[in-house]
Protein 1
Amino acid sequence: MRIVKPDEIETLKRGVDGGTEEQRKVVQTIIEDVQNEKDEALLRYTRKLDGADLETLQVTQDEIDSALAEMEDEDLQILREAAANIRSFHEKQVRQSWFDTKPDGTMLGQKVTPLDAVGVYVPGGTAAYPSSVFMNLMPAVVAGVERIAMVTPPSEAGTVPAGVLAAAHIAGVREIYKVGGAQAIAGLAYGTESIAPVDKIVGPGNIFVALAKREVFGDVDIDMIAGPSEIVVLADESARANEVAADLLSQAEHDERSASVLVTTSAELAEKVANEVNAQLADLPRHAIARVSIENEGGIILCKNIQEALDTVNSLAPEHLEVMTKEPMSLLGSIKHAGAIFLGRYSSEPVGDYFAGPNHVLPTSGTARFSSPLNVDDFVKKSSVIYYSEQAYNRDADKIARFARLEGLEAHARAIESRKDRDES
């Protein structure tokens, strides 16, 4: 791994990938085809891009039952326990409607309403992701969304991994479609004969999925434009090199474009981690992917002191941040920008990815500066509620009319005064 100084941090930063012009044109064509041809386009693109020749798109109850029967009891129990942890965490995020009454009879408030319909994209490709099922579905379920439609790419045999179907079943979602890519996003956004349109689409995917979400935004809402996964480990001399290296590689194996960065105040640890990464790469099953990730996107930033290290972390605004120092809790208040913060030796990033409960759908590419993890608030909308009493109206009418005229909006002022004139007549 390359070792750089904090003033070279720009070499490790990545912006949100906007794709190439050719990729955008491909996505636009796919979306237009789905809008015009609906199911026929979904089935055609599924044959072309996934190699699956399907007759129907929706997963049947028999397929779900078969997936559950195929799973080992121990694996199902682990999935159920993880789901319970994730549900429990998100239940604490639920907001209630509130109303505030004044002595003059005025009532002001906020009404919280779940979205009617949400689409969830679960990636396929080189791995199956039941964890992604839970993280995207569970906050929507907890929020009270009435209809949740899940889409995921099928294998060439036209199947969906058993773990993915089992996770959806455990989360309580039965509306599942075997379709992926930009075509799945278009189907969710605009509807087809099989898939009714939704109001919001969430979930990570490849560049074509990300570009499709960007294209349909405005017609529907989306969660975020997710980039490749990333981890930053903030460590001092107390950290163990083999554990730091293992955590860096846990992200590197995701994708060749994943980023794994160590920020440390210890030159000795930096050298040991670099050696450990090379040693552990040798027998990693996904070593080819991880090696490209480490060589192209990884790095070690050697800082003079802990404050410089904290400044570096905040500048990177990473998706995942592990704090492996003598007193990690003491640094929490100084960390401003990170999607998820893992404190201490035993809070390895996979703890949060799979089991602890917090959501692992996190802002990437430095967007943790202004974005949050996927949460229950993403699946509700808030309406302001205003009831003005006659007493409050008479008190404030002249002020409101004058304010309107301050902005040059005479009709606004007259709307206020029309009631005053009527009431006084």
Note: The longest strand covers residues 107-114.
Protein 2
Amino acid sequence: MSAEPATHTLELSDVTLRYDVRGDLEDAGPDSPPLMLIGSPMDAAGFVSLAGHFADRVVVTYDPRGTGRSTLTGSAAADAAKGVAEWSPDDHAEDLRRVIEALGTGPVDLFASSGGAVNALALIARHPGLVRIAVAHEPPLARTVPDSAQALAAVEDIHATYRREGMGPAMAKFIALSIQQGPLPDTYAEQPAPDPAAFGLPVEDDGTRDDPLLSQNIRGCCCYAPDFAALSAASTRLVVAAGKESEGELAARAGAAVAERLGLPLAVFPSHHGGFLGGEYGQQGEPEAFAARLREVLAEHAD
């Protein structure tokens, strides 16, 4: 099966979505549906290594609205340029619905990471018939952890910092929150702000406010409240996962909390939050071992 992706376009009222198909959709069937790999706001470029380990299947990737090649149009584009556009997981779920329906193959299997995992939970709650098996890897749902008040306050502070000071200071706070080990202390908000330069980030504010993560998605994603009743009732075979090296970090703790809430075991994957990356964005995980574990999990839930 060809690993070269064919790019398709889906025109919606406020965005042009672009998605890639590796393989021939006619080769997909009920026993081997397309495997869709999604992140948010990470785009399709982040899944090149992982997709390469599934050359025996039809693989679909896409760029979420406002990222990569999925360009906003009309008032949505204007709002994004001004930093006032924000997308909820429900918005992304409807985009995913349209892409899956455009494939015309019936339900897909879905691997979803980080913000993509949150969007996958929204999709399954709203349209469970579109997904056969879903693996939600480290959804950073701040509401689900015991220290939710501190986590939600930290997310709001990151967004406010971006509006006030720009990308460097806000991204430094985001990274610090992402790698914080264990529950956030009550005094977390009072700690000195991290130095952007320590993370190789710009200190000067360039004046832009259209970053897909810091402006458009962070609050909608991290502050989202999943519909646990709908997820429990869904026909989708849901797996919630976290990386072995991520234990204690917010996204992994949230994944464990979601799994517990749904009465599911937490599936442990190799490596860390970006364990499937093979050098994309300068980050290295263990893509071969990660893909083997994903293949194992999908097979376990295929019957």
Note: DSSP finds ten helices and nine strands in the chain.
